[in-house]
Design a protein that fits this description.
Length: about 450
């Protein structure tokens, strides 16, 4: 960016926490209603930043004790937000609390932030450990051994194996790297493969962020009947320190973009199912959203949604079959994609690092999460769009508590949905029976809608 803007320097993450917190308060805090739920939500969002900085600082200074304090902070705030999200369906009275800035002003700030964040992705260099990890994943996928799925599971956790070959871009660092020791010179990599991987990573990160922002605006316009609300939620997402620090993490933003667009397309169960199936295949953890979404479509649209999920998962499995050298390699990659293994107690990092706590305690946390996922199929009995968003955000937030590889940091999985829940109006009339047609084609839905209007 300094080639375009004279003497431009990236804002330090700590400085951005202060600036973004002040902007968040100035733009969204309701000074006329100090004790509103909106204000408490904003305070909670701002309170996530110290934990994120502690983890970031601990990783860069190689101080695991500081990093663990950050994880504990994030998990504490995450637990409070889970309670908030699960109680959201009971909040029937939802007065319209518009932002303190006009729609034009928010749009201008949002576009400016988006340009700067995407420029950071384009100009950032992948870290050494990211290059090494991507190269190792590429080697694991290329070798002809049936154990490669187990190796990928141990290194990265469940998810689409081919996604692990992409580098990641730390767009913000507390400490600036020395210019005398460029990152690429520390690792011997094939130049053409490295450039292709970097281009693919940058492209996927930028498209995913654009999809998240556009999807949030469309949800406000189409489903909330208030585009200003969608723009406000998207702007707050761009303002959060998490978005600035982890802009280049494809494994964070790609599943989030798919889940957001599944909500955008919720009136078309087949399309929503395809997007949800793709999210499940890419990152595995949205699999636990299925009981909730099945319950939402139970009275109408369930078979269309199920067909969409199954078709995309089958497509991803087929892509693994085409890129595998033999049956054993294919089965190993499939096992890595779906996490077909017992909960691991070794090779974990983040909060469940074995040097700080016994990973055996992760098993009851996982059991409680599975119970929560299944219970949302029964409660609340009548599910609307608001319930779908809030409970989906609660589940993706709950997945952080047992994630064995940096759980707590993958905030993009739940932040967009949680922000839409915070800003949403009353959506009790958005249920499957009233917004979906009985047929599979759009023409049948339009005809059914015209009959309803004539009646």
């Amino acid at each position: 960016m300094n080639e375009i803007l004279f003497h431009y320097h990236k804002v330090n993450p700590t400085t951005w926490v202060y600036l973004s917190s002040l902007l968040t308060i100035g733009l969204f805090f309701k000074f006329s209603r100090l004790w509103s739920v909106r204000n408490l939500d904003l305070i909670g969002l701002i309170a996530l930043a110290p934990g994120l900085l502690l983890v970031h600082y601990g990783q860069e200074t190689v101080d695991p004790s500081i990093e663990q304090v950050g994880y504990i902070w994030l998990f504490t705030m995450g637990g409070l937000f889970i309670i908030r999200l699960l109680l959201d369906p009971m909040m029937v009275r939802r007065p319209l609390l518009e932002p303190n800035l006009s729609m034009g002003g928010m749009t201008f700030i949002g576009i400016s932030l988006l340009v700067f964040l995407m420029a950071n992705v384009i100009t950032s260099k992948p870290a050494v450990e990211d290059l090494v990890g991507a190269t190792a994943a590429e080697q694991l996928l290329a070798r002809e051994q049936p154990a490669e799925g187990d190796d990928l599971l141990a290194r990265y956790g469940p998810g689409y194996p081919l996604l692990h070959t992409l580098s990641s871009y730390p767009t913000q660092r507390i400490f600036v790297e020395s210019p005398e020791s460029p990152t690429q010179s520390k690792v011997e990599l094939d130049v053409s493969r490295q450039r292709a991987r970097e281009a693919a990573t940058r492209t996927m990160a930028i498209i995913s962020h654009l999809a998240i922002v556009l999807g949030m605006v469309l949800i406000g316009y189409n489903h909330f009947d208030n585009i200003k609300t969608g723009i406000a939620a998207a702007l707050l997402y761009l303002l959060l320190p998490y978005t600035s620090i982890f802009t280049g993490r494809v494994e964070h933003v790609l599943p989030a973009a798919l889940m957001i667009w599944a909500v955008v397309a919720y009136r078309r169960p087949l399309v929503a199912g395809m997007l949800m199936g793709l999210a499940i295949g890419v990152s595995y953890y949205p699999l636990f959203l299925l009981p909730l979404w099945f319950s939402f479509y139970w009275q109408r649209g369930l078979m269309r949604f199920l067909a969409g999920v199954a078709s995309m998962i089958a497509l991803l499995v087929g892509s693994l079959a085409l890129t595998s050298v033999d049956v054993d390699a294919f089965l190993g990659r499939t096992r890595a994609m779906f996490g077909w293994t017992l909960p691991r107690r070794h090779g974990l990092d983040g909060f469940w690092d074995a040097d700080f706590r016994d990973p055996a305690y992760r098993i009851p946390v996982l059991a409680a999460f599975v119970v929560l996922s299944g219970s949302l199929a029964l409660w609340p009995a009548q599910k609307n769009l608001g319930t779908l968003m809030s409970c989906s955000a609660a589940l993706m937030l709950g997945a952080q508590f047992w994630h064995g590889h940096g759980g707590g940091l993958l905030m993009a999985w739940y932040l967009p949905l949680m922000l839409l829940t915070i800003f949403r109006p009353n959506l009790e009339d958005r249920v499957a029976l009233t917004v979906l047609g009985q047929g599979w084609t759009s023409r049948h839905r339009l005809r059914l809608r015209s009959v309803d209007q004539a009646a």
